[in-house]
Amino acid sequence: MKLLKSIFIAAAVVLSCVSCAHKSIDTPQSDSNDVLTLDTCLQLFADSILKDRSGCVVAIEPNTGEIKSMSSSKPDCNILSFEFAPDQVFLPVPAMIAFEEGVIDLTANATDFVKGVIEELCRSKYYCRDRSKDINPNDVAYYAFFFKRTLNNRKYADAQSAYASWFEYVCSLGLGKPLGIDMDNETGGYIPSVNDYTRTFRTSKWKPINVIQDALGKGNIRVTPLQIANLAAIIANRGYFLTPHIMQGEGKEFTKNQSRISPKVYDLMADVMKQETEGGTGYCCFG
To answer: What is the pLDDT, as a whole number, of residue 197?
Structure first.
């Protein structure tokens, strides 16, 4: 599933830190006995793979919210404040929301899920492809379809009400606002609200097609590298995250943030991610 490659890479990095036996990097002791949570081996590994590449690496321990690695290849790419359109890495979000809203049938098997959606696309005449070929959602219409059905959900009065709910789902995933890491200069990215679009289109009755780019992570949506790594941690935890932090000290407590999406949806997404990192395009990226 080529379009989900970025999130699979993030998840693999997140999960790899669990088995690393090296200790965190100590810092000079303060009155509160704080030390950095960075893992020596992961930090060195991140620095090495970015030596001749452009990008950044963030690794989070899902069970604790500890930052295990934070590295960037460019000085101007601040992991806490660099905001960008997420593009492909955002695609699991509209898919999971569609499942939660019940506009796409939730199946226990990732392969059956893909086949089911292709059948839906063909029946609706919204999009179709040669089903004799391998089933693989490499086309943006696949995710636009999720979004379109979500905003046309009949349980809402109109597309604006449906989008308002979609907006709340996205924000519950730690997007659109700072995560609260214990470092300075963190920004929160941007998730446009109903009112934002009403001002943009100068009407309160805009249509789903007007905001379809949001489903593809290409429109006005902006995220930070830290938020994307945290999204992978949420999926690993089946629906929640602990506030990411880089300082570890006795007596510190970190907030548990619960998303609006139920664990059964995360089970499916984690299954898809596992397939990709064990033998799909996500796995090939490490070759």
So the answer is: 95
Are 126 and 148 spatial neighbours (Cβ–Cβ below 8 Å)? yes
**Stated pTM of the model:** 0.79
**Tokens for 9?**
């890479």
Residue carrying structure tokens 């199946």: 107
pLDDT of residue 270: 85
Pairing of strands 66-72, 247-248: unpaired
The residues, any chain, with a CB within 8 Å of residue 23's CB and separated by 6 or more, are: 39, 40
Q: Which range is least confidently modeled, 3-17, 192-206, 207-221, 257-271?
A: 3-17
Q: Please write down the long-range contacts of 230-233, taking CB distance under 8 Å and 24 or more positions apart.
A: 230/60, 230/174, 230/179, 231/7, 231/10, 231/92, 231/93, 231/173, 231/174, 231/175, 232/7, 232/10, 232/11, 232/13, 232/14, 232/60, 233/14, 233/60, 233/61, 233/62, 233/65
What is the rounded CA–CA span in Å between residue 106 and residue 82? Answer: 35
Q: What pLDDT, on the 0 to 100 scale, is given for residue 271?
A: 82
Asked if 92 and 271 touch (Cβ cutoff 8 Å), the reply is: no
Element spanning 198, H or E:
helix 194-201
First to last CA, the chain: 17
